[in-house]
Amino acid sequence: MNKLISLLSLAVILGLINGSIYSKEQHLANGEIVYLELAPVDPRSLMQGDYMALNFSMGRSIQQEIAESKPHQHASSGYVIVSLDKRHVASFKALYTDQVLADNERLLRYRSRNGNVKFATNAFFFQEGHGEYYESAKYGQFRVDDDGELLLTAMYDKDLLKIGAENQPAKQDTTAADSGDQ
């Protein structure tokens, strides 16, 4: 009997995990692309490798709106209305309070903790030694689902060109050419 309960428990747990994975894969495949302007900083973490701590430009507007509408609330979660331009770059419109949305507006879920607003994550991790590729990051590309949940997919520069090691020209080995000049 104990083995049956253990096997059923394992099957339920594996089913829930696989369901969550499938849900995230569908979100990545079918979510609408939205770009959020970043205000990045680039600390180093010896325990976690290289990463970029993310701040969002519209975070100040959201914090200001929270402070004005909910002055005694320090931690908050909710939805923000953003308008999308032709390139799908999001701009802050207002905190969501059951307003009807225009065609170019979307709801995005945010979380505010310790004075910082985050969308989906507050860090972008990259391979050790690749920090220089992300110094020009201006936008984070997210996939947003119908519930306003976001998943970060990549970093983009000011021209909305994807950045990262895989998008950089190959570095040429100059040691062989330099050794012949001596």
Descriptive notes:
This protein has 182 residues and is α+β, with helices and mostly antiparallel strands. It has one domain. It has 3 helices and 11 strands. The chain has helices at 2-30, 59-69, 175-179; strands at residues 32-37, 44-45, 49-53, 76-84, 90-95, 105-113, 116-118, 123-125, 139-144, 150-156, 162-163. The strands form 3 sheets. Strands 1-9-10-11 form a 4-stranded antiparallel β-sheet. Strands 5-4-6-7 form a 4-stranded antiparallel β-sheet. A 3-stranded antiparallel β-sheet has the order 2-3-8, with no helix packed on it. Strand 2 and strand 3 form a beta hairpin. The longest helix is centred in the N-terminal third of the chain and has 29 residues, at 2-30. It is globular. Residues 172-182 have low confidence and may be disordered. It holds the Pfam family GDYXXLXY. This is Putative membrane-anchored protein.
State the total count of DSSP E strands.
11
Our measurement of the CA-to-CA distance between the termini, rounded to an integer number of angstroms, reads 80 Å
Largest sheet data: 4 strands, antiparallel
Structural class: alpha+beta
Low-confidence stretches: 172-182
Question: In total, how many domains does the architecture comprise?
Answer: 1
**So how many helices?**
3
How do the strands line up in the largest sheet? Answer: 1-9-10-11
Helicity range of the residues? Answer: 10-25%
Strand content: 25-35%
- Principal-axes geometry comes out as globular
Whole-number mean pLDDT = 81
H/E element string?
HEEEHEEEEEEEEH
The radius of gyration over CA amounts to 21 Å
